[in-house]
Amino acid sequence: MGILVHKYGGTSVGTTEKIKRIAKRVIAEKEKGNDMVVVVSAMGKTTDHLVEMSKEIAINPNKREMDLILSTGEQVSIALLSMAFQEFGYDAIALTGFQAGIKTYGPHTKNKILDIDDEKIKNYLKEGKVVVVAGFQGVNENGDITTLGRGGSDTTAVAIAAKLGCPCHIYTDVDGIYSVDPRLYKEAKKLDVISYEEMMEMASLGAGVMEPRAIEIGCKYNIPIYVASSINDVGGTYIKEYDEKMEANIVTGLSVCDDILMVTVSHILYNLDHVATLFEKLAIENVNVDMISQTAPVDGYINVSFTAPKDDLFVIEKVMGDLEGRVEISIEDEITKISVVGIGMRNQSGVSGRLFRILADNGISFRQVTTSEISISYTIDKKDKEKAVRALSNELNL
Amino acid sequence: MGILVHKYGGTSVGTTEKIKRIAKRVIAEKEKGNDMVVVVSAMGKTTDHLVEMSKEIAINPNKREMDLILSTGEQVSIALLSMAFQEFGYDAIALTGFQAGIKTYGPHTKNKILDIDDEKIKNYLKEGKVVVVAGFQGVNENGDITTLGRGGSDTTAVAIAAKLGCPCHIYTDVDGIYSVDPRLYKEAKKLDVISYEEMMEMASLGAGVMEPRAIEIGCKYNIPIYVASSINDVGGTYIKEYDEKMEANIVTGLSVCDDILMVTVSHILYNLDHVATLFEKLAIENVNVDMISQTAPVDGYINVSFTAPKDDLFVIEKVMGDLEGRVEISIEDEITKISVVGIGMRNQSGVSGRLFRILADNGISFRQVTTSEISISYTIDKKDKEKAVRALSNELNL
């Protein structure tokens, strides 16, 4: 027995009843002899309400102030959860990001964890307390409250586990990692285990269950992550180091993402500097550019397409408006990215050929294709999404 | 022109519309050349909602966690108000209690300000920013978030003004200090000016407009406090150092308080130690004991009565339950305290005689009477309240 980090997301702490239920789950683990750290998100709809009020005040609210207001969400949940432990007769203490020593850096609303000064957490654990930590938030070197952006609470949980050198359980509203999103493909199989690398591809490719940043930290410090349901007691999925047995399947999963835009910039004068400037400007604005494809120059001009999160539309339009010259820009949002992921692809050729064949046989045309060592991704028209998911899942036995 | 502190209470920041209105008022002062610090409370009903959720979790929630959850209320208001300034084109920055350097000590939910490390506030003012500070909260030496209890935001505002050596304007839902609460006596006169000492008596005696702690700080550092309406532009009341002119009226105001209990402990064996133990125990539990009266011993036994805030009923019952011996205890809550305050009473005799006469002529009997240098207080049956207020206000020309 040792230290164990549990993380519960927004829907699991949606009501005071649910918060009490979480306290009981954690107490059961503590009774087994574990020292417990619990990371929680804001209660269900709280964040939406705070964003709504901010938008009533300002069209584009200052991001430092956004962080300040959003961080109150977790502060409320940790206080309530800590009270619940105390009510059940267990000593507990609630810590905000800055109290838990979570030091961050970067632009507001998208901070990254720099380090965790875990002295307080360790001391409180030694005193026998359940330590309840606010996910998603930290403090920068200026003493400003920061937030970690999407999936920030997972990142907080895994980072604390990494610092304490203990396992991390992520309890969520799905009961594990599936080969394909079960909402898209009912017959999808739940995976008992998946490697960090595959999960990172799945996550960064939009599987949505966990953010890649959290997995990356788990991978770097070799912290086993267990993803399971916060409600049911059915077995979840272990995310851990790659292991020989996993290689049996060449393809582990399918990842599907709709929350993207595809931007095509055409008629760019062929000049390395022009393309570099474009992506530099996007980087300065913290736009998370994903798939990039570029055609060979024709008559001295090139076309570039890239995908990016829909949330960044406003910023992308601004950057595109600043581009010099007579380039033409089109932004499409009826786009789906579909990715096939498997660590076995590293040593197996022929997967791409098989995929192109499946798409062709089903009459699905694609706009872009990119590959990594363990994945192949396509952008397709959103109308073809269901057909593509079904065809690929069936053929690849996912 | 110099620095000016404005404070706006909970009802003045109740909606995003109202927050925008406050921003405009503050901007008007800034445009006159003032460097502005704005202290705000939590939005109207927020605190009630947070208390309600806490009560759903625990009957008697841990006070450290209560402070943590309650402090989110002001954190939301400061972020929104800061966004409003920015939206109107003014540079602004929102600071929580700990960010503003407000160091506190004492028991949770009832902390006191130890000191303010005003470096950040001063630096941001130098940069031309409107500095928006969360009222009611601070941080203790352990790094825990604390709250200042009733009237805490006023205390924050006046303490910051004291530290910066500048005036403090308290904008509230009443348009100044009245000789008598206008809800109790319609003909009550608004005072243009009142001395710190009188206001402290009025406040601690339950006038409700401002807490005595805030006035005490104003008095100690000689900071002029202006109390006025946050909505109307009618003149308010200055609270300032005593000045010869003020002495014209012997009696300045009447203060009425219903939120009290009267506890009578009878049949105490006459022994100095017994009475001391009783009040020591109440002090340990932070009960704010107010009027104390004790009868001379009869047959070796004495009776003691005291008043205390109704909020402390739970704690008082606990302490009383712990008392040893065969004492009898009665707790009455249909009690009103009514106090006559005036700095002129210091040099004028005969006021008490006049007051006893007014009460007698109107058939109002009282339970306790206590006096200070500038006030006389009575506890009466709540049913006699209206009659007493009317009689005293009329006779004393308030």
From TrEMBL, chains A, B:
Pfam families: AA_kinase, ACT_9. SUPFAM superfamilies: ACT-like (SSF55021), Carbamate kinase-like (SSF53633). GO terms for molecular function: aspartate kinase activity. It catalyses: L-aspartate + ATP = 4-phospho-L-aspartate + ADP. Gene3D superfamilies: Acetylglutamate kinase-like (3.40.1160.10), VC0802-like (3.30.2130.10). Its EC number is 2.7.2.4. CDD domains: AAK_AKii-LysC-BS, ACT_AK-LysC-DapG-like_1, ACT_AK-LysC-DapG-like_2. Residues 340-398 form the ACT domain. It is an enzyme of class 2 (transferase). Keywords: Amino-acid biosynthesis, ATP-binding, Diaminopimelate biosynthesis, Kinase, Lysine biosynthesis, Nucleotide-binding, Transferase. Pathway: Amino-acid biosynthesis; L-lysine biosynthesis via DAP pathway; (S)-tetrahydrodipicolinate from L-aspartate: step 1/4; Amino-acid biosynthesis; L-threonine biosynthesis; L-threonine from L-aspartate: step 1/5; Amino-acid biosynthesis; L-methionine biosynthesis via de novo pathway; L-homoserine from L-aspartate: step 1/3. Catalyzes the phosphorylation of the beta-carboxyl group of aspartic acid with ATP to yield 4-phospho-L-aspartate, which is involved in the branched biosynthetic pathway leading to the biosynthesis of amino acids threonine, isoleucine and methionine. Belongs to the aspartokinase family. This is Aspartokinase. It comes from Turicibacter bilis.
